[in-house]
User: Fold this.
Amino acid sequence: MGTVLPLSGARRPVLAQVGGRAWTGHRSDRLSVRRAPAALTGRKTWKERVVSEAMAASPSLRGRSSAETRSAIVDVIRSEGEISRTELARRSLLTEATISKIVKSLLEDGIIVESGFAKSTGGKRPVLLRLNDQKLYAVGITLDVTRCVIVLCGLDGAEVDRCEIEGIGQDEPPLVLDRVARALQQLLDGRGTRQEFIVGVGVASGGRGFSPGRKLDATFVDSWEPYPVEEELSARTGFAVIRENDANCAALGEYWTTGGSPTRDFITLYLAYGIGCGLIIAGGIYRGVSGNAGEIGHTLAVANGPLCWCGRRGCLDTVASPRAVTEQIVANPTLRAICDVTRETEFGVIYRRFGLLVKDGNEPARRLFQATADHLSNAVNDLVNTLDLDLVSLAGPGFADLGEEYRCAIEEQLATFALTRGVRPITVRLGTGSADAAARGAASVVLHRELTPHRSVAAP
Ligand SMILES: [Zn+2]
Assistant:
């Protein structure tokens, strides 16, 4: 799954098969490894490597189609946040004249804007370029049980407007999509944003993805899973619609808006009612054979534990998801009294009160929190060991109140038990801890597909 580093000329490393871990020579390594200076080895610096790989599978863009080149240049501007023409030319190995031509067309199309000046290195101060957040927009939508969120994001993935309408509830999909389409139109009308300035619509939804026409196991399929949301919402709005599961959306949102690099794989643990995980591998979502990769909630947490809706016992989802936490509170008279809730209290209220009690240091609440945090940390540790990662992000409404507490617990686990803890530090980053994480991410899925198609999300 790793990205192949570009090698110059015919020099290729001699590979030797060895046991044990690979040590990178990072200063925190327990082994002392002397490295030759980059100037002597001819290796690129980490930053040059990141950028050249962001551009394409090849370190040079020479000889690639103009569409691929343009797409790759946009991706570098996104990844860097701001960059000058000269720097783009230096890193892409293209001439400044070629870069100027591409930049001119991107400026004319409203994809990028000039955003100020870089520091002078002796001569004229270079003009910086960044993605335009004022002209073209992507729409992101979450379809949630209690509420549906619609966000409008600029090309940099940042939210510029939003609205919220009632959730799916028990309504059938056509009715919900009617509501969503009306709310989207009102949002655009209210801002005076014309249809032609919308790049596309992304929909984040829970559940599994199914290929159309495939026979389903009717024992545990909800009506949304096989429903053709893309076609139906597209017919109602006139926009191109792409659907992705909420955890994948949150992960790609993190990638798009935080300067993610194709050479730094990471996972996003997504907490809403249940637990999901988005895997960003080589600059795109890893989707698996059927588009359902990342179902960390259905990995084993407790042998012979509680029965999960998927049919297995002891899934992570049954012991550590916000839904499981609220079920444990409601089933326990002590916790029920402490949280001042009844069996009829709404999920969000129970979870919020639980969060406040944990923050206040309430002992029974903290014990329950610690148990769920241990389960989550162990599951993340397994993935970090399996994929050899050094970055984990956390996103979703389940982290809204206890995000920092969960972040610390997971980071401590990884610093103590991850196999590669001595090879390099493993960062746990708290991302968007709200219901908007998946909606913003859904907009990023659209931007990723439309603006940087050389790395687009592949359909299952
Ligand atoms: Zn399960």
